[in-house]
Amino acid sequence: MQKILISACLLGQPVRYDGQSKGLTDPRLARWQAEGRLVTLCPELAGGLPVPRAPAERQGTRVVTVQGQDVTDAFAAGAQAALQLCQAQGIQLALLKEGSPSCGSGQIYDGRFAGQRVTGEGVTTALLRAHGIRVYSETQLAELALALGEG
Length: 151
Ligand code: SF4
Known about the structure:
This protein is an alpha/beta fold and 151 residues long.
């Protein structure tokens, strides 16, 4: 059975920077959970950051908070934790929250804290993809189902 790494906030865990979740309601997700496919992680917590925490955005190879603190190392540690979890459990598929500086897979914020999204990916997504793990966003459940062979 193929497992799926999933952003903890998409499963309703209140781990976002603002202490909120982004729980996703979808019958496919509920079924995958019942089947025991879902492996939950919040890379930013795994990297040692607290809840709540200052919002952060990617600026080139660095990640900085809105107050200008460099949190690149914590984001990199979280990405490594996600990769190690995938490798330990043979996970080849991930469902990660779009827009996040860790979990985004198609869009992230542009680094100016102005609410502007640009094409890009989060730190965890980039590391997972570099190791052959396919990353989908919450808007791509149909594609993920296909990848699971549920076409
Ligand atoms: Fe959700 Fe990922 Fe942000 Fe954690 S790092 S709150 S899992 S989007």
